[in-house]
Give the backbone structure.
Amino acid sequence: MSLLPRSRTARRRLMVFSVAAPVLALAVGVALYAMRDSISFFYTPSQAASAHVPAGRDIQLGGLVRMGSVVKRADGEVDFVVADRRASSPVAFKGELPDLFREGQGVVAIGAYDEAGVFVATQILAKHDERYMPPELAAALKKEGEWRGDGATPTYAAGQP
């Protein structure tokens, strides 16, 4: 008794399938391997603290810029604090800030934490106008109960976590 089908057409189909399946699986594996570094997770400061994001892992950190926290240094570096209701993260960024970047407004910083726990941003995204906020940030703020759709300044933006 043979494992191969009797019909010549069925054997041909089985042969094509047995060659195509591993090639397709290899192509999917190579594509997933190539995309492994392009995945960037979105966190609020409290989510990043609870997830214990390892130093050097690229993420997106979103929240509101704490009032009075923006410090511009002579070498072009800008330090500020991104906060949500329960936690805050210090952020260091060297580069050109978006025109709409300001205290009390929503931002998304793209970068990674360093060993000291400071988020080193490579890119800063600010909201586009008074009604727009990145969907991930708006959803996270709504979940935290801190959504300010009318532009009101949250209580924690003034200094308390």
Remarks:
- The first strand starts at residue 41 and ends at 43.
- The chain has a mean pLDDT of 84.
- The first helix runs from residue 8 to 34.
